[in-house]
Design goal:
It is built from five helices and no strands. The protein has about 150 residues and is mainly α. The relative contact order is 0.16.
Length: about 150
């Protein structure tokens, strides 16, 4: 019998399932994608002649230096969010869901250009969103089982 202040032993949020592996996968992928974006941003900052497409043929008219700075900042943020997700932080779960939502919308916009790749990434985004929203707290329990 439990008292009012004690949680029940069979509480649903105390169980750690295999979905923590998907959260670890999502955090690793976010760190990898963030690293790629940061490197791409550095190239845009320091070697803007490296890219094949001239600035005038881009969909959005922007200088490669500004484009590189944005990629560098977003890449570093993605790396931080991925590390936070691996540590089971709530703020990282929220930002991870936001990044996955944005990624799904962007890939939906490119569905005609790259149908197989876009569908694959949208599927991963949906799995990441589901894992983070439904099973995200399990990562914190796995890292600190006394909670």
């Amino acid at each position: 019998m439990t008292t009012v202040n004690e949680p029940a032993e069979d509480s649903w949020d105390e169980a750690v399932t295999g979905w923590t592996g998907w959260i670890a996968f999502a955090s690793t992928m976010l760190i990898l994608i963030g690293t790629f974006h940061a490197l791409e941003g550095l190239v845009g900052l320091f070697r803007d002649g490296y890219f094949v497409a001239p600035k005038d043929s881009l969909l959005v008219k922007v200088d490669y230096t500004a484009w590189g700075a944005v990629h560098l900042v977003l890449g570093l943020v993605a790396i931080g969010v991925g590390i936070g997700m691996a540590l089971g932080q709530l703020w990282a779960r929220i930002l991870g869901v936001v990044f996955a939502l944005v990624s799904a919308v962007v890939n939906l916009a490119f569905l005609n250009a790259y149908p197989v790749w876009s569908i694959l990434l949208i599927s991963f985004d949906v799995i990441v969103i589901w894992a983070l929203t439904v099973h995200g707290a399990e990562m914190k329990l796995r890292r600190n089982p006394t909670m």
